[in-house]
Amino acid sequence: MPGKLAAGNWKMNGVSASLAQLETLAANHPDPSVEILICPPATLVSKAADAAGPIRIGGQDCHANTSGAHTGDISADMLKDAGATHVILGHSERRTDHGETDQQVHDKVLAAWASGLVAVICIGETLEEREKGVTNQVLGKQLEGSVPDGALAANTVIAYEPVWAIGTGKIPSLDEITQTHSFIRGFLAAHHETAEAHGMRILYGGSVKPDNASEIFALNNVDGALVGGASLKAADFSAIVNALEASATGV
Ligand code: PGA
Asked: Between β-strands 56-59 and 224-227, what pairing exists: parallel, antiparallel or unpaired?
């Protein structure tokens, strides 16, 4: 089974000079005991892959088709060719900014798998949905629609990111995170039958910072984090990686 995963999502941030942060991160973790992934903007994937050392590089989206008349889009094959091993799909900002549906995310996941990329599939409820008490229904529907048959621990990671926790400094209570991850684990076990699928990693995302990472990583069924803002600076992300390493070894 793959190990724990600390994933950074740079979103629409970063130019060539930002690769210095990646180089520092790589120097800080020459032999990591957890998997480390950075997803820079597409323009930097190739250069980042060259500078990454033991750190894996991913895209932030891909098209469902392999090539063709889709101006401005990027295929999974192109990401793979540029050196990516992973791709984030269905991030709430893509679902909101670009109206991505579960079906579209599902089709992109198939494209990612066909190119040999690991799909990091994002799901999450809005504040209104959590307050209405429909979080599990919303997440169940997203999982059902976005995660294709054939999902395995080796080709898929689920990132649970409450929309209201992204970039806000707010996080759910630790009990809420535990309950939600347990729901996701149960849902995956019920819908994806192989033992391999049962080991799929479930990341928590949304305002993960150096000062809250350890308590989140101590929770059951939290296999790492998807980190936005705190992945931009090597010092912050290194602290999160260290917290994940400590949780994985029980230190
Ligand atoms: P944040 O973003 O860590 O800045 O809240 C998380 C994400 O959107 O992946």
From this structure: unpaired
